[in-house]
Write a structure and sequence with these properties.
Layout lengths: L1 H5 L30 E2 L10 H12 L6 H11 L4 H8 L3 H11 L13 H8 L1 H14 L11 H18 L8 H10 L2 H5 L18 H9 L3 H11 L4 H9 L13 H19 L8 E2 L15 H5 L2 H12 L3
Parallel strand pairs: 1-2
Helix pairs in contact: 2-12, 3-4, 3-7, 4-6, 5-6, 7-8, 8-9, 8-14, 8-16, 9-13, 9-14, 12-13, 13-14
Length: 326
């Protein structure tokens, strides 16, 4: 997969760099030139109240994630030094081992293995460590069931979107990078919940003219957005994270004014990150792609999707995530 990140994107794209065109056209990515496919994003779904209630009842019986997650998030938001983060992670030997395993992945090519947890956390960086901590804490409370989606692929996708959202947020005015990163990590958590459903009827074929939400509503009786909101409320995730999960598909199907201004920039950052992750083969099982609604153009004033695709930071972050073996 390394060739994916070293490839130079050239003339085969219909889009052009902003430096090649006086008129700023931020959404200049040709979705037909790489993995996945372009699809519409219709937002209004016909979900089944009975199915949603069954999900709510099932989720109520799930345990809460360990207190380690809340403590880690509290220290992280406060800007605590790595030594404090290390002190709480050390209390969980399994998590400590996972972080050391990640940092010593063969693909990273370290000359000497890192055996000190504090050094490992510094080497991996805050976003990647947060993702590993979240996967560890929440995997313990999400039933590991086979279903429509592969859980490992979903976690990889969430990690990719989280890392990319933090990068993209730097190009969006008044966007809180850490909030966007956490929303990105959890935006598709509802797809893990859809594995609870045993689909006995004939599989419904995906319709490019309707999009993923209509497809899920027809197949499962509800969408991953609805299930994700149920999870987020049960786990008492912060309000902004719950709102981010609820709105994360809207930039592809509605005017920006529909999304509350307080969370709009972060939701847009996650949407762009999700689109780029899919375009760079981190789809998590949903390879459908939709360009943002034109009203969001003002939120990306100084760069374009094409230019972001060639950002070396994005390539590096995806490569690091791909190196991790769960």
């Amino acid at each position: 997969m390394w060739h994916l990140f070293k490839r130079v994107f050239t003339s085969q794209k219909k889009g052009t760099s902003q430096t090649e065109d006086r008129e700023h056209k931020p959404f200049n990515l040709d979705l037909d030139t790489r993995s996945g496919f372009e699809a519409k994003q219709l937002l209004e779904t016909d979900s089944q109240a009975e199915r949603l209630q069954k999900y709510k009842d099932a989720v109520k019986r799930l345990p809460m994630p360990s207190a380690l997650w809340d403590e880690y998030q509290r220290l992280s938001r406060a800007g605590a030094p790595n030594r404090k983060l290390t002190s709480i992670i050390k209390g969980d030997p399994v998590l400590s081992a996972q972080i050391l395993k990640a940092v010593n992945a063969p693909a990273f090519g370290l000359r000497k293995p890192i055996v000190d947890l504090n050094r490992a956390i510094s080497h991996l960086g805050s976003n990647l460590v947060r993702s590993i901590v979240a996967k560890h804490c929440f995997s313990q409370v999400i039933p590991q069931m086979r279903g429509a989606y592969n859980l490992t692929d979903l976690w990889k996708h969430g990690m990719a979107v989280s890392a990319l959202a933090e990068v993209v947020s730097k190009h969006i005015p008044k966007c809180e990078a850490k909030t966007a990163a956490v929303i990105g990590l959890f935006h598709d958590i509802g797809r893990m919940g859809l594995n609870f459903v045993k689909v006995e009827h004939q599989r419904i074929m995906f319709n490019h003219e309707k999009g993923i939400l209509i497809h899920e509503a027809e197949r499962f009786g509800c969408t991953h957005v609805e299930v994700g909101c149920i999870f987020a409320k049960h786990w008492n995730l912060p309000d902004k994270i719950q709102q981010g999960i609820y709105w994360h598909h809207h930039p592809g199907g509605a005017d920006k004014q529909v999304v509350p201004e307080a969370i709009r920039a972060e939701v847009f950052a996650v949407y762009v990150a999700d689109l780029l992750a899919k375009h760079l083969e981190f789809s998590g099982g949903n390879a459908s792609k939709t360009l943002p609604h034109e009203s969001y153009a003002s939120l990306l004033p100084k760069t374009t999707l094409y230019d972001l695709m060639q950002d070396k930071t994005i390539s590096k972050e995806l490569w690091r995530i791909n190196c991790i073996d769960f």
